[in-house]
Amino acid sequence: MNQNRLDLVFSALSDATRRGMLEQLAAGETNVGTLGEPYDMSQPAVSKHLRVLERAGLIRRTRQGREHRIRVDPRPIEEASTWIGRYARFWKQQFDAVDAYLKARADEARTRSRTKAKEQDKR
Amino acid sequence: MNQNRLDLVFSALSDATRRGMLEQLAAGETNVGTLGEPYDMSQPAVSKHLRVLERAGLIRRTRQGREHRIRVDPRPIEEASTWIGRYARFWKQQFDAVDAYLKARADEARTRSRTKAKEQDKR
DNA sequence: CTGATTCATAACCGAATGGTTATATAACTG
DNA sequence: CAGTTATATAACCATTCGGTTATGAATCAG
After folding, report:
1. B94–A74: do the CB atoms touch at under 8 Å?
2. pLDDT digit string, tens, across residues A66-121
3. Do B52 and B18 form a contact (C-beta atoms < 8 A)?
4. Does residue A97 fall inside a structural domain?
């Protein structure tokens, strides 16, 4: 399908191994072997995970002799964070609004609990 | 593989159709048919996308007659937002620190070059 | 009851995913 | 030079994914 950047980033982040690699890279750039050490998988499997992260633009690599130094490129993460953050904020706000509404209604009900009979809800 | 919650959420978000559905749901809860209208795909395909969102905990459904009312559950998105937000903030901070360092070094180099020029004058 | 509407499920298909082993390439080491 | 090390690539495999068509089940309308 039409794989845009956001698709690739979220897809790359959907694997715990790859998220772990990114977190490991937060401690500083390393080579491929070191990145793969924590995981019980073959070297080609590690190589594939890195290729996925690279295709998503989440890492960059530079050759230093026979080693590949891997470092994070924070820009695509920033993009994804923006999307998801905007969305999360919207729902937090919705939740807070409903919360405030319910609280207000509870207060109101308390103050005129004897005068009011029954409220009809809309929708 | 060992599919934890974060895996499922990011995986669900990695498809533009599903992200679109979530955005559509921000306008309020709807039924399955309405959710699928914007997309050029069969009804079972829509149903499958909803199942993916549901497995990830991103939506909830309630039956009303023959219709299914779909609404967002914002909690898993909040979780994902937390992970990615923390990560994005870390890298922004790193970037800012490097930026500040480079700027400081540039300033220092500027003053040093003036000093060096003076010393050469002395010679 | 009959027929239409809303949705899910089953069965299938091709492509992508995540893993493997085996092999290739390039750089370092003695 | 030969041997070791770091990494990628190829070929393969099972599973998942995103789509399809066909069918089923429940509810609504006349």
Report:
1. yes
2. 999 999 999 999 999 999 998 888 887 877 777 776 667 666 665 655 554 444 44
3. yes
4. no
DSSP B76: H
Task: Count structural domains, chain B.
Answer: 1
Domain span at B29: 5-73
pLDDT digits (tens, 9 = 90+) for B97-112: 777 767 777 666 656 5
Q: Report the chain A residue with the minimal C-alpha distance to residue B78.
A: A88
* Residue A80 located in a structural domain: no
Which residue has the least CA–C1' distance to nucleotide D23?
B44
The CA–CA distances, whole Å, from A39 to A31, A42, A71, A117, B84 equal 15, 9, 18, 65, 22
Residues 64-103 of B with CB under 7 A from strand C: 66-68
Spatial contact of A92 and B78, defined as CB atoms under 8 Å apart: yes
Nearest nt (C1') from B64 Cα: D27
* CATH code for the domain of B49: 1.10.10.10
Provide the ipTM. Answer: 0.84
**Segment 42-101 of chain B within 8 Å of chain A by CB:** 72, 74, 77-78, 80-81, 83-85, 87-88, 90-92, 94-95
Between the alpha carbon of residue A121 and those of residues A33, B12, B32, B65, the distances in Å are 62, 34, 24, 20
What phi, psi does B28 have (nearest 5°)? 130, 160
Inside any domain, residue B20: yes
Say if the Cβ atoms of A77 and B95 lie within 8 Å: no
User: Any atom of strand C under 7 A from CB of A41?
Assistant: yes
Residue A28 within a domain = yes
